[in-house]
Amino acid sequence: MDYAQRERNPARHLPSITMVIVLHLALGYALVTGLARKVVEVMKAPIETKIIEEMKKPPPDTPPPPPPKLATPPPPFIPPPEINIQVPITQVAPTITTVTTTPPPPAPAIVAPPPPQAAVRREYKALQRVDVPYPRAALQQGITGRVVAHVVVAPSGAVTEVRIISSTNRIFDREVIRALSQWRYNPEPVGFIGEYELVFNLKD
Q1: How many C-beta atoms lie closer than 10 Å to residue 173's C-beta?
Q2: pLDDT in tens, 28-82
């Protein structure tokens, strides 16, 4: 069988015809069920777009701070030149002044009048007397003596002080002062001083 007869044989083209029929059937089914419409809607759906930002480059390293500015040193001190100006010296003749200081005459000394002394009454009788005892030590030693005493009497008649004027032996002074301090006198407008002589003798 030659080539032309083979091509004319209907059995040889049966698969191709079958495929064409199947495609037509599928297309018709798609039109009926709306599959083609869904495909069109999918094609018409909005397309999402995303803007991709450009990658920012990292900032360059911070440069180091500039070195501190050093203050310029002050200029060196240059002392000014010394200028000696001679000032003429004018000599003034010293003036001699004589000053005579005469001390003032001394003021007359004021002599205070002596205080009035109370009258001394010798052996004046007292209103109340206390006998002077003979000291025991003088008795044991056999000592005799003589004492002169002043009694200072106040205007009220009380004895304010007893003074020993003279004494042959101090062993008698204490007893004389103790006894005469207890004497009493009549009151008077002005006080006075009484003088008494006391003699101590050993009796046989």
Answers
A1: 16
A2: 777 777 655 665 565 555 556 666 666 666 665 666 777 767 667 777 777 776 7
DSSP 65: P
Which of the following CATH numbers is that of domain 120-200: 3.40.630.30, 3.40.50.720, 3.40.50.2300, 3.30.2420.10? 3.30.2420.10
b/e per residue, 76-112, with b = 16+ CB within 10 A?
eeeeeeeeeeeeeeeeeeeeeeeeeeeeeeeeeeeee
pLDDT tens for 62-77 read 667 777 676 677 777 7
Instruction: Fill in the amino acid letter for 92.
Output: V
- Of 130, 173, 131, 121, which is closest to residue 151 (Cα–Cα)? 121
Residue with tokens 């002074």: 173
